[in-house]
Write a structure and sequence with these properties.
The structure holds two protein chains of two kinds. By secondary structure, chain A is mainly alpha-helical. In chain A, strands 1-2-3 form a three-stranded antiparallel β-sheet, covered by helices on one side. By secondary structure, chain B is of the alpha+beta class. Chain B is 36% helix and 19% strand. In chain B, the strands form seven sheets. In chain B, strands 2, 3, 4, 5, 10, 18 and 19 form a seven-stranded mixed β-sheet that branches. The longest helix of chain B has 26 residues. The radius of gyration of chain B is 33 Å and the shape is elongated. The relative contact order of chain B is 0.10. The C terminus of chain B is likely disordered. The chains are: A mainly alpha, B alpha+beta. Chains A and B meet through helix 8, helix 13, helix 14, helix 15 and helix 16 of A and helix 1 and helix 2 of B.
C-alpha cells in the first residue's frame, strides 16, 4: 500500500500544482496590498485579512495534499452522497443561513462561515460525472438530456433562491462537459444565440432587429428552397427567436431585481452612473487602466491604497493586480489561468475513465467561467456578477472549494493508469 | 460518427478566444487610453491653489496707487455635497433660494468632482457669517484671493482691469492659466501681466475614498510656493493725474505729461475717464457693458488711440526742420496778408501782423509763416523734386515720433496717419507738389497723431533734440528698466531749438502770445496753442508746452475735443497741470479758475440714432447755430448760463462715467 501510494504520488501532475501555488501566492500578495497599511503596522498580523488568507492557503494546501492520499475510487462511490449532502446544505442555508450582502448564502460555524454554493460545484461535478460514466448516454434522447439537466439545474435553482445569481450562473459551465460527451452543438449555438439576441434586444430597436431576423431567415429559406424540413425548422426558429425577444423585455422588466437590471444596463452602456451602481465598475476600470504597461509597483497603487475600489480584496482583487502590476501582471495571471485550463482539458482527455474525464472537463469549465466572468466584470465587459477569482480572491470557502475541486481531479488523474 | 474528442479543440479554442478578448480590453484601457490614468490622478490628488498677491503699483512719489484687497470665493465640490440647509446657506450669502439652487446646478454642470466657484467674491460680512456655520456644509470651502483696489479712483484706462481668464486666454497661454484665474485685460494690468501676476502656488494632497487627506503627494515634490507679483514703480504723479481727470471731467479729450529728461509719463488722462474700481468685483460685467455702451467711448484710451490733427502745435517742428535745413534762419521774416495763397486754396490767419518774424510767428501762431517754411522745404531742390523732398521732410518729422509707434508700455498703441509720398502718387499721379499737401504745414489735413506723439514731440523740444521713449513704469521691483535710457535724437541741432523756444515762450508769456491767459506766475512755461479744424464738429482745443524753459521738468500736450480755441481750454488746463506738478499746488486766483474749468461741460452733442432715425435739415441748422454761438462765447470767454443749458440738454443720457469726485 505504501509503495502504491508513492507511485500515485509520483503520477500527480505537479505542473498544475505549481500553477495552483503560484496563483495562491499572487492572491496573497495582492490581498496584502489591497488593505490599508498604517505606517506603524507590525510586520505580520494574523487578525488581518492577509493573515487569514495565509492560513487559508496553508490549510488549503494541506487539504489538497490529503485529498491526494485518498483512494480515488471513493470519489465515484461517494459522489451521490456528496451531491445529496450539498443539496441538503443548499436547502438548509435558506432557513438557517446568514444574510450577507443580500444573499442568504452563508452557514455560520463558529467564527467560520460556510458557503454551501461553493461546495455544490464539486458535488454536482462528481455526481454528473458518475451519471455520465455509469449510463454512458450520448445525449441523443430526451431522457438522458433531461436527467443531466436535472442534476445541474437542481443546485442552480436552489442557489437562485438565495438569491445568488452569480454563483448560479457558474452551473451553466456544465454544458461544456456534456457537449464533450455528445450533447448536440446546437445547444451551445442556441445558448450563444440567446445571449446575442439578449444583448441586441437592448442595443437595437425591436422593429429593426425583427426585420433583420426575418431577412436572414428569408435568405436562408431561399437558399434551401427545395428542402422542406429546413424551411419548416427555419420558420419555427424565427418565430421562437421573435417570441424570445419579447420575452426578454418582459423578463427584464418584471423578473430581474432592480440592481440586476441596472448592472446589465450599465454593462451595455445604456446608462452611465459614476456614483451609484456603476461606481464599482468605473473605479475598478480606473484602477486597472491607471496601471498602464508595467503598473505602479507593489503597494504603490493609489486607488488600491486609498480604498477607491469596493470589495477590492474579494471580487475586485483583479483591479489591484491591474493597478500595481500593469498590463504585464494581468497578462501573467491570465496566461497562468489559460495555461492551467488548457492543461486540465488535456489531462481530462488522457483519462481512461469517463468519470475522470467528465469531472476534469467540469473543473476546467467551472474555473473558466469564474475567470472570465470575474475579470470581465472588473474591466466592464460583463455586468457586475459577484463571483470570486479562483485561488486569488480573499476568502476561505472559495479557496478551499476550488482547492478540493482541483485536487480531486489531480487525484483522479494520478490514478488514470489504474482502475475506475 | 463524429469524433467526440475533437470537441476538445472547440472548448480549448473558446478559452483562448475569451482570454484574447480580456487581454485586448486590458490592452486598450491600460496602454492605448490614458483616460483611466488621468481619472486615477484626479481621484486621489486634489490640488489646492495658492493665489499670490498681484503686484502693487506706486506713483513717482512712492504712494501706492494700485493695491490688493482680500476677498473670498465660496467653492463647492458638487459630488461631496450632502443634503444641506439650503436656506441657511442662502441667508448667509444674502442670495435667494432660487439663486442658490441655480448656482449649484451651474457648479455641477461645470465639474462634479472639482472645486468650482459657487459664489465669487463674497462680502466680508458673509464670510464671517459663513465661518461659523461652515461645518454644516460639507463639500463647500472658501478660497481666499485678492482683488484690485485703486485708492485714488482715477486712471481707469491707464491701469486697465483684470478679469477672469477666457477660454481663449487659456489656450493662448498654453494652459498656464486655469479656469478661474485672473488676467490683466487692458492697460498696465495687461502690459505688465507677467510680472504683476506672480507665480501661482500649488499644494498637492492625497485623499482617500472618504475624502480624508492622506498627506502630501510625493512628499511635496510637486508643490509650488506662491510667489507674489512684483511691485511696479511708475512715473505717474497721482496728484497731477487726479487734477487732470478733474479738469477734464465732462469734456472729451486727453492730456499727456512727460518728464522730458527721463521719458517718464507724469500723467496720462483720457477723458471721459472712469473709476477703475468699477471694473472690479461682482458688478464688473455690468459696469463694463455700461462703459462699452457709453456714446463718449470711455473705453477708448485717447492718449494712445485717439487720432487728432496736431494743428498749430505742429508749427515748431516746421520751424526746427526749416532751421536745420537752412531754408530759414532765426531772422527770416515773411509777409502775412492775413492769409496764405497756395494754388487756388487760401489758408487764413487769425491775426494781423503784416511782416512777421519766426519768433513772433510762433507766438502768434501765424499760418502764413509756416506755409512759407513748408513751401521752401518742399521746393528747395526745385519744383520737379517735390515728391522726393516731401518724403525727406516726412522722414525727418517722423523722427519726432509722428507716424510711428512710440512703444509705450501700454497695449493697443496706435501710430496715427502720416503718409509717405507714394500715398500722394496714388492720389494725384506723379504730378503733385507742396500746394497739394500744404495743410500738413499747419498740422492739418491728412496728418493725425496721438496725444502721446504730440507730447513726445514737445519733450524733444524741451530736451533740445532728443527724446527717451515715453513710459509709465520706470522700475520693476528694484530693477530699473534699461530700455528707457537710450536717447533718440531727431536730427536737429540743439542750437536751432532756442529761436523756436523763444517763440513758444512768447506765446505764453507776452501780451501778444496766443496763450497769454495761461501764464503761470514764477514759472517760465513755453508753449503753443492749436485750434484744430475738425470736419465732424467744432474745432479741437489743443495746447502743447513745457516748463520751465531751462531744465524742463514737464512737457505736456492737452487736447479738448470740440472745445474751440486752444487758448480757451487746452492752454489753461496745461498751465494748471504744470503748476501743480512743479509747485505741488495751483495758487492764487488761478485756484478759482481750476474750479471753473472743472465745472465746464463741453461734451459734444451725441445724436442718438436709435431715437432719431433721420436728421432733418432744421435740426442740423439748429445744431450749427448752437455750435457757432458757443464758439463765439468761448473766444470772448463769456460765462453765460445759456450755453450751459444747451449742454445740459445734450447731457440727458450722461451716466456716471466721471465718478472722480
Amino acid at each position: 500500500m505504501q509503495q502504491q501510494g508513492n507511485r500515485f504520488f509520483f503520477n500527480v501532475d505537479w505542473i498544475s500544482v505549481l500553477i495552483y501555488i503560484c496563483l495562491c501566492a499572487i492572491g496573497f500578495v495582492n490581498i496584502y496590498a489591497s488593505i490599508p497599511h498604517p505606517e506603524n503596522s507590525s510586520a505580520f498580523d494574523f487578525g488581518s485579512s492577509y493573515g487569514k488568507q495565509l492560513i487559508y492557503i496553508i490549510t488549503g494546501l494541506i487539504l489538497g495534499l490529503s485529498i491526494l492520499l485518498f483512494d480515488g475510487r471513493l470519489f465515484n462511490v461517494f459522489s451521490p452522497f456528496v451531491y445529496g449532502g450539498t443539496l441538503l446544505l443548499l436547502v438548509v442555508v435558506l432557513f438557517v443561513g446568514r444574510n450577507v450582502g443580500g444573499n442568504q448564502a452563508w452557514i455560520p460555524l463558529g467564527s467560520f462561515r460556510l458557503q454551501p454554493s461553493e461546495f455544490a460545484k464539486f458535488g454536482t461535478a462528481l455526481f454528473l460525472a458518475r451519471y455520465v460514466s455509469s449510463f454512458n448516454p450520448k445525449f441523443r434522447d430526451f431522457k438522458s438530456i433531461f436527467f443531466a439537466a436535472i442534476i445541474v439545474l437542481a443546485p442552480l435553482a436552489l442557489i437562485m433562491l438565495q438569491p445568488d445569481t452569480g454563483s448560479a450562473l457558474v452551473f451553466l459551465a456544465f454544458m461544456f462537459p456534456l457537449y464533450r460527451e455528445g450533447l448536440s452543438g446546437y445547444f451551445l449555438l442556441i445558448f450563444l444565440g440567446m445571449i446575442v439576441l439578449f444583448v441586441a434586444d437592448f442595443l437595437v430597436p425591436s422593429a429593426i432587429l425583427i426585420g433583420i431576423i426575418i431577412a436572414v431567415a428569408g435568405l436562408f429559406i431561399y437558399a434551401n428552397k427545395r428542402k422542406q424540413t429546413i424551411i419548416i425548422t427555419t420558420v419555427m426558429v424565427t418565430v421562437i427567436a421573435i417570441a424570445y425577444l419579447f420575452l426578454v423585455k418582459v423578463a427584464f422588466n418584471n423578473i430581474l431585481a432592480p440592481h440586476q437590471r441596472t448592472r446589465i444596463e450599465l454593462m451595455l452602456g445604456l446608462k452611465t452612473d459614476n456614483k451609484g451602481a456603476g461606481y464599482n465598475v468605473i473605479q475598478s476600470q480606473i484602477a486597472i487602466g491607471s496601471g498602464q504597461a508595467t503598473g505602479r509597483g507593489f503597494l504603490q497603487g493609489t486607488q488600491t491604497k486609498y480604498g477607491y475600489v469596493p470589495a477590492q480584496s474579494t471580487d475586485f482583487i483583479f483591479s489591484t493586480v491591474g493597478e500595481e502590476w500593469g498590463f504585464v501582471g494581468c497578462f501573467v495571471i491570465i496566461g497562468l489561468f489559460i495555461f492551467l485550463l488548457l492543461r486540465l482539458i488535456n489531462l481530462a482527455e488522457r483519462q481512461r475513465s469517463t468519470f475522470s474525464r467528465v469531472y476534469g472537463y467540469s473543473v476546467a469549465c467551472i474555473l473558466f467561467f469564474h475567470v472570465f466572468i470575474n475579470i470581465g466584470m472588473t474591466i466592464g465587459i460583463i455586468p457586475v456578477i459577484g463571483i470570486p477569482l479562483p485561488f486569488i480572491s480573499y476568502g476561505g470557502s472559495s479557496l478551499w472549494s476550488f482547492t478540493i475541486l482541483l485536487f480531486i481531479f489531480l487525484k483522479l488523474d494520478s490514478n488514470r493508469m489504474g482502475f475506475i | 460518427m463524429e469524433q467526440l474528442f475533437n470537441r476538445k479543440y472547440i472548448i480549448q479554442g473558446l478559452f483562448i478566444v475569451v482570454a484574447l478578448i480580456l487581454l485586448a480590453k486590458l490592452f486598450y484601457i491600460q496602454i492605448v487610453s490614458d483616460k483611466a490614468f488621468v481619472s486615477a490622478e484626479s481621484n486621489v490628488l486634489k490640488k489646492k491653489f495658492k493665489y499670490p498677491a498681484r503686484g502693487a503699483i506706486l506713483d513717482r512719489t512712492g504712494k501706492v496707487i494700485v493695491q490688493n484687497e482680500p476677498v473670498y470665493d465660496l467653492m463647492v465640490i458638487p459630488n461631496e455635497v450632502k443634503a444641506f440647509d439650503t436656506l441657511a446657506l442662502a441667508n448667509a450669502l444674502e442670495i435667494s433660494l432660487a439663486d442658490a439652487r441655480k448656482f449649484m446646478r451651474k457648479a455641477r454642470a461645470k465639474s462634479p468632482y472639482q472645486a468650482t466657484p459657487f459664489v465669487k467674491q463674497i462680502s466680508v460680512q458673509s464670510y464671517a457669517r459663513l465661518q461659523e456655520i461652515m461645518y454644516r456644509f460639507p463639500g463647500f470651502s472658501t478660497q481666499d484671493r485678492t482683488i484690485r483696489h485703486y485708492p485714488d479712483s482715477v486712471g481707469g484706462q491707464l491701469f486697465g482691469y483684470v478679469k477672469e481668464v477666457s477660454q481663449l486666454d487659456i489656450e493662448k497661454s498654453e494652459n498656464y492659466y486655469r479656469s478661474g484665474d485672473y488676467i490683466g485685460k487692458s492697460g498696465l494690468e495687461r502690459s505688465y501681466e507677467e510680472v504683476l501676476r506672480g507665480e501661482r502656488g500649488v499644494v498637492n494632497t492625497i485623499y482617500d475614498v472618504h475624502n480624508t487627506p492622506q498627506g502630501s503627494y510625493a512628499d511635496g515634490k510637486y508643490d509650488i510656493n506662491a510667489i507674489a507679483g512684483e511691485r511696479l514703480i511708475s512715473g505717474i504723479d497721482i496728484q497731477v493725474q487726479k487734477l487732470g481727470e478733474e479738469l477734464m471731467q465732462n469734456k472729451v479729450g486727453a492730456i499727456v505729461a512727460i518728464e522730458p529728461s527721463s521719458g517718464e509719463i507724469i500723467s496720462m488722462v483720457s477723458s471721459p475717464g472712469y473709476d477703475p474700481n468699477l471694473l472690479v468685483g461682482k458688478d464688473q460685467g455690468n459696469h463694463y457693458m455700461d462703459l462699452i455702451g457709453n456714446p463718449y467711448r470711455p473705453s477708448l484710451v485717447r492718449p494712445i488711440q485717439g487720432y487728432y490733427p496736431p494743428g498749430s502745435a505742429f508749427k515748431p517742428i516746421d520751424a526746427l526742420i526749416g532751421l536745420q535745413e537752412g531754408v530759414i534762419d532765426p531772422n527770416t521774416t515773411f509777409f502775412c496778408p492775413h492769409y496764405y495763397q497756395a494754388g487756388n486754396r487760401k489758408i487764413k490767419c487769425e491775426h494781423f501782423d503784416g511782416s512777421i518774424s519766426l519768433r513772433r510767428g510762433i507766438a502768434r501762431s501765424c499760418n502764413t509763416y509756416f506755409c512759407y517754411v513748408f513751401q521752401k522745404l518742399i521746393t528747395k531742390n526745385g519744383m520737379k523734386n517735390q515728391r522726393q523732398t516731401y518724403q525727406e521732410w516726412r522722414d525727418k518729422v517722423s523722427k519726432f515720433g509722428f507716424g510711428v509707434k512710440l512703444d509705450i508700455d501700454l497695449p493697443f498703441e496706435k501710430k496715427g496717419y502720416f503718409y509717405n509720398s507714394d500715398h500722394y502718387d496714388k492720389l494725384y499721379g506723379k504730378r503733385w507738389g507742396y500746394t497739394n499737401v500744404i495743410s500738413q504745414a499747419i498740422g492739418q489735413g491728412e496728418i493725425t497723431a496721438t496725444p502721446l506723439q504730440i507730447a513726445n514731440a514737445m519733450a524733444v523740444i524741451a530736451n533740445r533734440g532728443y527724446y527717451i521713449k515715453p513710459h509709465l513704469i520706470k522700475a520693476i521691483g528694484d530693477r530699473i528698466k534699461k530700455e528707457y535710457v537710450e536717447k533718440n535724437y531727431v536730427g536737429v541741432d540743439a542750437k536751432h531749438f532756442e529761436p523756436v523756444i523763444d517763440g513758444m515762450q512768447d506765446a505764453v508769456n507776452t501780451s501778444w502770445g496766443t496763450a497769454v491767459l495761461s501764464r503761470i506766475p514764477n514759472i517760465l512755461m513755453c508753449g503753443k496753442t492749436g485750434t484744430v479744424q475738425n470736419s465732424r464738429g467744432k474745432n479741437h482745443s489743443v495746447f502743447i508746452g513745457f516748463a520751465p524753459r531751462d531744465n524742463p521738468k514737464i512737457a505736456i500736450a492737452v487736447i479738448v475735443e470740440n472745445a474751440g480755441y486752444g487758448s480757451t481750454y487746452a492752454a489753461p488746463i496745461a498751465s494748471y497741470m504744470v503748476e501743480k506738478y512743479i509747485t505741488r499746488q495751483v495758487s492764487g486766483a488761478r485756484a478759482n479758475q481750476v474750479e471753473w474749468m472743472k465745472s465746464q461741460n463741453l461734451l459734444p452733442l451725441i445724436i442718438d440714432k436709435s431715437k432719431k432715425p433721420k436728421l432733418t435739415k432744421a435740426d442740423s441748422l439748429s445744431i450749427k447755430k448752437a455750435d457757432s454761438a458757443k464758439r463765439i462765447q468761448d473766444s470772448i470767454r463769456i460765462k453765460s448760463a445759456s450755453s450751459k443749458e444747451v449742454i445740459s440738454v445734450q447731457l440727458n443720457k450722461k451716466t456716471k462715467i466721471n465718478t472722480n469726485k
